[in-house]
Structures are given as structure tokens and as C-alpha cells.
């Protein structure tokens, strides 16, 4: 994973709604989370959630056990400030997802939009996938969004890996069942379009 200082610099020097991945509402993610049918008190983690507005909409939908993880303290501060008093209802975790050690079977749903595609090193992807396998309970869900095969080759000045539904699902292996996929044309604040792909899986066992 890239140095923490890169992401601290991004969120220190740019407004949260001026970065290419900004969404007023994470509609594709919300639709897939609702599709799982998980209970409102089920444990959800948003990996790389940082300044994302997904947590706002999950709180508004009455989900009550929410964790937001990001490598950048500045990104987490953006979300906490935006939420005001409601921020106390969220677990905030400043950590590198390739290094964190979660309790076993902690989460019913793991969500990641635009972290996994930054893991260009196979060892980092292996550590990420080990974290998923440990942290998600049997029968739990994983929703991961990355750049599609025809998406950008770089983001925030960093190289990324692009995926098809098959190649993304193949990364997760036999312990997960692919339930569906979704494509998204993300309109950036700069007026460009980025192609995203989401895979929606259930953990077996």
C-alpha cells in the first residue's frame, strides 16, 4: 500500500468534494448493501471509507453498527466533522488495511469502493484477502468496487489494477460465492467519466 503520507497530503490539501472519487451519494454501494437484506444492527465496515458519504446514508437508513476504516486521519476527520454529533455512533479506525488485525468474524458486511484496486503488489493483496477471510463471518457479505477493465490506469497519481468481474472474483477464491455484479459510470467533479465494477459475494461456511 502507498505511504500514509500520500493520503494525508491529499485530504489536507484538497477539499473532500474535489477529489476524483467523490460521490454525493454512494448509490451503487447502497443498492448492493440493501440487496443483502442484512439486519439494521448487523456489523458493517467501510474499508477506505474516509471522507465518503456512505456512512451518512447508512446512518440515515438506521444501520447502527458501523465501522469506517481509512489510512488517513485527515480523511476520517472530514467525515467526523460533517456528521457532527452523529459521529459518536460510528467506530472510526485509522489503519492500513494490509496491516490491521481484526477480531475473527467481526463483520456481517465488508464494503470497499476503490481501495483494492490500489493494491498492485501481490503480497499486499494477499494480506488484504486474509483480513477479509478472518473478519467476515460465515454467511456474511463482501461488496468490492474497483476500476473496470476500461477504467483509468492511474488514480491520485498512483498506478492501479483494473478488473473484470471474473478476475476480481478470482482474487477472493473458493471461500466466497459470487452473487452478482454491477457496473457504474462514475462522473468525477471534473466532468470526466470513470468506469467502475462491483462484485457482490457471500462468504461460505
Automatic annotation (TrEMBL):
Pfam families: Methyltransf_25. Signal peptide: none annotated. GO terms for molecular function: demethylmenaquinone methyltransferase activity. GO terms for biological process: methylation. It comes from the Bacteria. Keywords: Methyltransferase, Transferase, Ubiquinone. It is an enzyme of class 2 (transferase). Its EC number is 2.1.1.163. This is Ubiquinone/menaquinone biosynthesis C-methyltransferase UbiE. It comes from Pseudomonas aeruginosa. The lineage of its organism: Bacteria, Pseudomonadati, Pseudomonadota, Gammaproteobacteria, Pseudomonadales. The gene is ubiE_5.
